[in-house]
Amino acid sequence: MTDMRSEVVSGLRDGIPIAMGYFAVAFSLGIIAKKAGLTAVLGFVSSFFTRASAGEYGVYTLVAINATYVEIVAMSLVANLRYMLMSAALSQKIAPGTPWYHRLLMACCITDEVFGISVNHKGFTPPAYTYSAALISTLCWASGCAAGVVAGGLLPSDLVSALSVALYGMFIAIIMPPSRSDRNVLYAVAASFALSGLCAVAPIVSAWSPGTRTIVLTVLISLAAAWLKPIKETDHGDS
């Protein structure tokens, strides 16, 4: 019991900095959710069970344009596919004999940051550590989104439009560092911008819904990058 309590405390301690950052990012997502017509309750619930900035932004954008359920599900799968790989990697840090339901729940707790602290945990990662870190960060993520929805309904429309740009700035901040350090990433980013603009005016393709175009381009560019410039095992280092 003492070990479990210490792991819970450790998870909460490591999860607090993540939670603080999550609230700020999710607030911007809440502005987008408000523009898509979601209430604060819906924003909280959707964020609590999603916890993915790119995935949620894609979903809220599709909801705003009345996309089909198929498009929304497809976007969620494509945008969040990396979590399957993270879950597989985290499985190597779980102690042998850990019940299957703990393994399943730990996989459901995965976000980029929670995965990072979980795989860097000294020795095997106890379920209690991942659960507590995920709980505190998820509550702040969902609360941030709900707060953004409320603010989007109270603030002037001009200010709401200005705040909604903050999320685009976050995405630029995400793609710029790897683009500067890896030329292949830069090529993929440039191709996504160019092809997105081209498909918006190209015959036939321009008639597709924005959600369908985004999904198709995401899959095609990812496949092309993986085929032309696959990541070698030696690129990951000896760890």
Q: What does this protein structure show overall?
A:
The chain has 239 residues and is mostly helical. It is 77% helix and 0% strand. It has eleven helices and no strands. Helix 2 packs antiparallel against helix 8 (127-154). It is globular, with a radius of gyration of 19 Å. It starts with a helix and ends in an 11-residue tail after the last helix.
Please give a quick description of this structure.
Helix content is 77%, strand content 0%. It is mostly helical and 239 residues long.
What secondary-structure arrangement, pairings included, does this model have?
Layout: H1 2-35, H2 40-50, H3 53-64, H4 69-79, H5 82-90, H6 100-108, H7 112-119, H8 127-154, H9 157-181, H10 183-201, H11 210-228
List key phrases describing it:
239 residues, disordered C terminus, 11 helices, mainly alpha
The level of helicity is over 70%
Strand tally is 0
Instruction: Give me the secondary-structure category.
Output: mainly alpha
Distance N terminus to C terminus? Answer: 32 Å
SSE pattern: HHHHHHHHHHH
What do the pLDDT scores average to? 83
Radius of gyration: 19 Å
Tell me the β content.
under 5%
Low-confidence stretches: 233-239
The gross shape turns out to be globular
Q: Note the main sheet.
A: none
Number of helices: 11
